[in-house]
Amino acid sequence: MQYILSLDQGTTSSRAILFDKQGRMTALSQKEFPQIYPRPGWVQHDPDQIWTTQRAVLKEVMAKAQISADSLAAIGITNQRETVVVWDRTDGRPVYNAIVWQDRRTADLCSRLRKQGHEPMVRQKTGLLIDPYFSATKIKWILDHVEGARQKARTGRLAFGTIDAWLMWKLTGGRYHITDVTNASRTLLFDIHTGRWDSDLLEVFDIPEAILPEVVPSSPVSAQTEPALLGRSIPVAGIAGDQQAALLGQLCCQEGAVKNTYGTGCFMLLNTGQRPVFSANQLIATIGWNIRGQTTYALEGSVFVAGAVVQWLRDGLKIIRTAAESETLAGSVPDSGGVYFVPAFVGLGAPHWDPYARGAVLGITRDTTGAHIARAALESIAHQVADVIEAMSADSGIPITRLGADGGAAANDLLLQTQADFLQIPIERPKVLESTARGAAYLAGLAVGFWPSLEALADQCEMDRIFRPQMQPEQVAQKRAQWKEAVSRSKKWNIES
Ligand code: ADP
């Protein structure tokens, strides 16, 4: 039993990664699958493609590492969150495509529910906001639009699941209909205080209880794969949503520990220990994980456009050819030359929450070059992250003294140095940037005794580099103030359209 296999089912691809006892990545396999955009604002996946790509990478990674199922101690699952699948229990067939977390088709329903005054109760029980992002209104949409679905749902013939539950159903040949607490905590149907589905929430969102999966801890999970899949049964022993798994994968196990994933957007989670923290700045309270009956909570904030601003420099402005070139170009000037770039392409998320804000570049003079714009673009990522981290600190009363970085854009040294400067705290970049898959591996490995305890993992998160603040605090204060001014000018821009 040399390995834990992590299944990382993401928004654009399915991955399978093998981890050894030292927490090292031994082999990785990845397959993309199609995104389905039937109308503007709608995003769907084919649940069967999710499963077939996931099964294919599972087999491929074992072939790559030349191992059989006998070498696997357990499997862990981590997944894109909030995305919903509804299927028929009798034949395992989805009744509709998966509606993806990005899908906005239920925006009107959400504003209606908010107007009806449900938000305070929903917020108090779930830690979330009423928004199409979360699962509940997507489930309702399927039940209301697929012929016969509501009737079948009431009688218990249909099953709902987030992607973890769908994979679990498939891995176990339909013997388990379960989801873990972190995924449940993103549905708007789950009370994060009691750890149960909640009848008031089910009523508000008009969802029959009979379709819900059983909620289990993140670790241990006691399911087994069906023997035909790998030649023998393997325990599926740990589950968590992707951002929570990344928090654990970076070993942010102590209260006050915080990680940021620098991807297309940025996702920050702060470990708030044994209590959920309710935000005054529209951040989200969520379950970090439940390990052996002990729930750890997290405060979460997201930035919509982060690495995507670098994509725009490449594909829109065409001043770089690769994302990595952003560092060379931005590094060719000592600073942004007074240029501020607010990449509010799709409005602003936490803590500003302005859907009408639009992108702005301010402070351009005759001397401004593409390099200054590139530098301002990288700085904009660091500024947005700093805005959320400051809000988190204010909400939780927890001083944030270090930040763990992962995700594709965390490869950019200049970005992480700028982050350390703006936050005036060290930014820690681990050697393995696959924190998400690693977190799922930890949950599974802890469950089956592959690793004895979280404490025993402490030396596994080897640092690649720690970025320490170098900029003078006065200069930081001036830049942060000017950024906030730039943000204020980008707000409420698109209000008439
Ligand atoms: P996601 O999981 O959201 O698809 P990834 O973690 O794979 O994102 O990161 C991809 C994002 O990171 C892209 O938006 C890309 O522009 C950005 N990115 C990748 N490498 C770099 C780099 N060296 N510097 C800045 N941004 C980068």
Structural class: alpha+beta
Spell out the CATH superfamily of the domain at 3-242.
ATPase, nucleotide binding domain
Please tally the β strands and state the result.
23
- Beta percentage is 15-25%
**Ligand catalogue:** adenosine-5'-diphosphate
Shape: globular
The first-level CATH class name of the domain at 3-242: Alpha Beta
Do you know the CATH topology of the domain at 3-242? Answer: Nucleotidyltransferase, domain 5
The N- and C-terminal alpha carbons lie at a distance of: 60 Å
The number of helices is 16
Summarize the main sheet.
Answer: 7 strands, mixed
Could you name the ranges where pLDDT drops below 50 across 5 or more consecutive residues? none
Query: How are the strands of the biggest sheet laid out side by side?
Result: 17-18-16-15-21-22-23
Our Rg estimate from Cα atoms comes to 22 Å
Give average pLDDT, whole number.
94
- Report the helical percentage: 25-40%
Q: Architecture of the domain at 3-242 in CATH?
A: 2-Layer Sandwich
Describe the protein in words.
This protein has 497 residues and is an alpha+beta fold. The protein has a domain at 3-242: ATPase, nucleotide binding domain (Nucleotidyltransferase, domain 5, 2-Layer Sandwich). The protein has 16 helices and 23 strands. It has helices at 47-65, 107-115, 119-126, 136-145, 149-154, 163-171, 181-184, 199-205, 227-230, 242-249, 307-315, 325-331, 370-396, 413-423, 435-447, 473-490; strands spanning 3-9, 13-19, 25-32, 44-45, 72-79, 84-88, 98-99, 158-162, 178-180, 190-191, 196-197, 214-216, 223-224, 235-241, 258-262, 266-273, 284-291, 294-303, 340-342, 360-362, 403-406, 427-430, 463-467. α10 crosses α15 (435-447), α11 runs antiparallel to α13 and α13 (370-396) crosses α14 (413-423). The longest helix has 27 residues, at 370-396. The protein is globular and about 70 Å long. The termini are far apart. The structure holds adenosine-5'-diphosphate. Residues 263-264, 307-308, 310-311, 323-324, 326-327, 407-409, 411-412 line the site of adenosine-5'-diphosphate.
